[in-house]
């Protein structure tokens, strides 16, 4: 079972920097994170509209700005999407959005489960899409895989982690060492994805 984190960022000296960039006459604030584990540039827009750019520790900052400019269309579309929910309680739009996106997320989840399960070959009962405030996903003892419809709005790496996490619970219905080794067989960077997922608070949009 995966629960959503409620914190946004832990500020560590020399690890995070607040930056600004102009994209199509829009001033965009973002957090630049240097990571010794990262092998390439990555960009994420979280549920509260905050933007994070992750760069390998030895990269030059000038590369970051070029990378962000190259992603201008994608970045602005994500920011604008989350703006419509800013300041609104979930009760106003949760059920409406759930019904709107449920079928799309179900199709996505089925495709992802089928893809990753080619490696594992696990048997399961069915896939359900739910609207929950604190869980990204869960796996029942009866073999049902349950996913929150809001995984649709997660960065791909975090979404894949949620899918694989619950898929592996079909074999190990716990969080033992055996479970994490199973996850690592198809998702070796699970620890980084798990940490980032905690920043994507479900109750903020």
Automatic annotation (TrEMBL):
Species this chain originates from: Candidatus Portnoybacteria bacterium CG11_big_fil_rev_8_21_14_0_20_40_15
InterPro entries in alphabetical order: UTP_pyrophosphatase-like (IPR053136), YgjP-like_metallopeptidase (IPR002725)
Pfam families membership: YgjP-like (PF01863)
Membrane spanning residue stretches: none
UniProt superkingdom: Bacteria
Protein name as it appears in the record: YgjP-like metallopeptidase domain-containing protein
Residue ranges annotated for the YgjP-like metallopeptidase domain, each copy included: 109-199
């Amino acid at each position: 079972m995966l629960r959503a984190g409620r914190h946004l960022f832990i500020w560590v000296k020399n690890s995070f920097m607040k930056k600004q960039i102009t994209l199509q006459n829009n001033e965009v604030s973002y957090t630049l994170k240097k990571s010794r584990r990262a092998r390439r540039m990555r960009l994420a827009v979280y549920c509260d509209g905050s933007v994070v750019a992750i760069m390998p520790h030895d990269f030059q900052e000038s590369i970051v700005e070029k990378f962000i400019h190259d992603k201008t269309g994608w970045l602005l579309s994500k920011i604008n999407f989350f703006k419509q929910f800013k300041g609104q309680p979930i009760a106003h739009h949760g059920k409406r959005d759930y019904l709107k996106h449920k079928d799309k997320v179900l199709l996505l989840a089925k495709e992802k489960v089928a893809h990753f399960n080619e490696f594992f070959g696990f048997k399961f009962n069915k896939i359900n899409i739910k609207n929950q405030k604190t869980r990204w996903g869960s796996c029942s003892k009866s073999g049902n895989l349950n996913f929150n419809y809001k995984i649709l709005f997660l960065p791909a790496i975090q979404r894949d982690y949620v899918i694989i996490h619950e898929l592996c619970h079909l074999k190990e219905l716990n969080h033992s060492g055996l479970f994490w080794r199973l996850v690592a067989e198809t998702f070796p960077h699970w620890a980084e994805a798990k940490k980032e997922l905690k920043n994507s608070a479900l109750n903020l949009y």
